[in-house]
């Protein structure tokens, strides 16, 4: 269940990441088809990427564990059975299982939206059932009598012809043909499925709205190319808004964002170099993988033959086995029995269990007769492997106790499913591993690069003093010679005006070259940064292992090391935010430049309009 919640959290985070990337960078661009695939790729990535885990193995030297001779014959107690098993267990206080509560709430929401989805399909079937279908090319036209908004569902196009004029109906059908021909219904259904799966996340509803809005932009853009009168098409958009009834799981002609659709219809085509915005998501996905999708496993090198457990004769052993199903009462009885019968102190703490009441984590601390303290720590997302407390008694009656775990010589330590065995003096203030007493030094996190944000070169200036003057019209318009001369002068004047208009192609090439150079520099810096982050993560894993072996989880030094690691990770998050801020500033600068270019074009159009008006007045004179 915990794994399910982690998957949902990661997928929701990726959906949010893609939505904000679209909203802040791509929403106002006219690359509608590219935005369609970007939004669909965001949904697919959000459910696939959480399953992509990169496993990294770190080999470390074996921990200095001292094993005393152990004999397994005869075995007095193979599985320890406590003496109080016949007694009635104490009643535990009632606790709310929030995992089950959360799962129940999620299931209720999921079921409710699934029912709503089924009702929408039933409503669609009710509209299509019994209607006459007219097949034309690859489309199936259905003319209905109900007052509903026109819509398309795969190759079905449904409309009420009595509500529109012939020109309006032609505009509507061209629009719906684009939806049907490009299979926009698939996008609608996929977005609805994700809304059902992640109904609790408000961003997914905004994401669905963005997908539907972009599909309308695509259909409007393609339909307007086939319609000569764009103004009539826009009036048709306004007329359709009077229809309040529409089918939820279809591409219907009516949408509430009519104003945005009209604005997009009249917007100039975006520049090609704006495509860099689609790649801005890649660094964020790289950071997601580095932070959440790398699993590091530390494996211990094989021990020398002399360090393996030896078997000696003439010894009696008692084995107290601890398995995943051992209860808390049995653990208490085990410590009490060792204290009462053998005067041995053993402490069992940090017991963790899963929903099946199986042990997933345990810490066993024990003091041996030679003054050494031995600790076994096991933490896992699954149930633990069996471990045993072995009590040896020699011929002279001397007792010695050891802790052994299943498979400890092959896989003694795993970072996320770990078994840690270490020995140190009980009275030592600072436990020492091997002969080293030097505290490990935490590695420093690398600094994230920033996209170059130097100012762009200014637009070339236009010398208005060199603008050609228009010729004067003849006073007598009936003078054919004068009018012929005037028309010839006007033709020359128009050629001079065309030559006077500034050529910005070189300036645009210069901007494209600058952006390409900056992008190449930034990508190279990001590659170096990713390599540095991999090295940093590897060093941090080694640092954590060294700190755990040297000081243990309960020591102040280990806590300080973990705090330093958290501090470095916060600095990394801050660097990433600064990087995002720089990218937003860069986008803002580019928008300002685009605004200036549009204003320049607007001024030139206004000047041309004034000249045409002046020419018209002269001809009238």
Describe this structure in words.
By secondary structure, this protein is an alpha+beta fold. 49% of the residues lie in helices and 14% in strands. It is built from 13 helices and 14 strands. The strands form 4 sheets. Strands 2-3-5-4-6 form a 5-stranded mixed β-sheet. Strands 9-10-11-14 form a 4-stranded antiparallel β-sheet, with helices on one face. A hairpin with a 5-residue loop joins strand 9 and strand 10. Helix 1 crosses helix 6. The termini are far apart.
List descriptors.
621 residues, alpha+beta, five-stranded mixed β-sheet, four-stranded antiparallel β-sheet, 13 helices
Range of strand content? 5-15%
Largest sheet: 5 strands, mixed
Shape: elongated
Portion in helices = 40-55%
Count of DSSP strands: 14
Q: What value does the Rg take, in angstroms? A: 38 Å
Low-confidence stretches: 65-89, 303-315, 407-437
| Strand order in space, largest sheet | 2-3-5-4-6
Order of helices and strands: HHEHEEEEHHHHEHHEEHEEEEEEHHH
Our measurement of the CA-to-CA distance between the termini, rounded to an integer number of angstroms, reads 86 Å
Number of helices: 13
